Amino acid sequence: MAIGGNVGTGVNITSDMARGQQKIQSQQKNAKKQAEQKKKQGHDQKAAAKAALIYTCTVCRTQMPDPKTFKQHFESKHPKTPLPPELADVQA
User: Where do the segments described as Disordered lie (predicted)?
Assistant: First the structure.
């Protein structure tokens, strides 16, 4: 009778440990790759959003993406201030 628990079961201990090590390495590599992609994507989104805000309110310095939104903002937030000349012909 054999003393070892794996005798006769066909399981090779060293092979299982090597596959376990490969699994750990693969998981670490995948986690690093995912983190790099997420970091890269986040910066691109921020840059694109910032580039889209091209109109700046002269009173409160709030940035807006288009003249229609700018005019609506100006009329609702600064009703007593005269409308800037660039917004005079914009349809809100």
Answer: 1-47, 69-92
